[in-house]
Amino acid sequence: MSNEDLNDLPRRKMVKPPTGGEATSRAKGHTAVKTAKRRTQSSAKWLERQLNDPFVQKAKAEGWRSRAAFKIMEIDDQHRLFKKGSRVVDLGCAPGGWVQVALKRGATHVVGIDLLPVDPIAGADLIEGDFTDPKIAEQLEALMGEKPDVVLSDMAHNTIGHKQTDHLKIVGLIEIAVDFALRNLKPGGTFVTKAFQGGETKDILLTLKTHFREVKHFKPKASRADSSELYVVALGYKDKGPS
């Protein structure tokens, strides 16, 4: 699950202004939000961004659970991740936008997992827990049944503003997602993971290039312009079998 989506979850209650209203029009077509009692300046900026984000508005209008749905659509349009009958595992799936897209675009079996609870989605098996926990891993493996054709990871830590710490956390999440993909993907399968510009190490990319036919970076238009977020797309898994 991305920082953007993680930040959306606990703050959705803030969309309705307090009595008296604090939203004002700064310019035609733009909603400005002022600070108010119990609302910090950062909260006001977050709300203003949400109210004026065309992808947030479009997601609500079309029934997607998050604006991140458009990111995976763009990646799928470019690389054809989801083929009819494909099996998909989504690591860090909350609130479920990527699961929705995978099912809509042909996947017949989707298993999603996240530390946060996710409302049920018809056609998907959803787990609340940490997939690195052996007990949860067993549950995930049982639900998968067969090896997946696609492994997705939109996992991301909330950044704390300390560059080195944030970098280590980002790299750590990518590493565990890569490890999961290499252990579970079907030969010829696809792996997609969130990364950040300068966030992944050369060793991770070298590992992916060793095990996949093709590895690319992709910056969706749905990613905010001021975000360093991008995605690594690894195509054509070359399963070498047990070592």
What does this structure look like?
The structure is a single chain. The protein has 243 residues and is of the alpha/beta class. It folds into two domains: 3-62, no CATH class; 69-237, Rossmann fold (3-Layer(aba) Sandwich), CATH 3.40.50. It is 38% helix and 21% strand. The protein contains eight helices and nine strands. It has helices at residues 3-11, 41-52, 54-62, 69-79, 97-104, 134-144, 163-184, 202-211, and strands at 23-27, 30-33, 87-91, 109-114, 124-128, 150-153, 190-196, 212-218, 229-237. The strands form two sheets. The chain has a seven-stranded mixed β-sheet, sandwiched between helices. The radius of gyration is 19 Å and the shape is globular.
Q: How do the helices and strands line up, and which of them pair or pack?
A:
Layout: H1 3-11, E1 23-27, E2 30-33, H2 41-52, H3 54-62, H4 69-79, E3 87-91, H5 97-104, E4 109-114, E5 124-128, H6 134-144, E6 150-153, H7 163-184, E7 190-196, H8 202-211, E8 212-218, E9 229-237
Parallel strand pairs: 3-4, 3-6, 4-5, 6-7
Antiparallel strand pairs: 1-2, 7-9, 8-9
Give the helix/strand class.
alpha/beta
Number of helices: 8
**Helix proportion:** 25-40%
**Termini separation:** 32 Å
Query: What fold name goes in the CATH topology slot of the largest domain?
Result: Rossmann fold
Mean pLDDT: 81
Q: Sheet bearing the most strands, described?
A: 7 strands, mixed
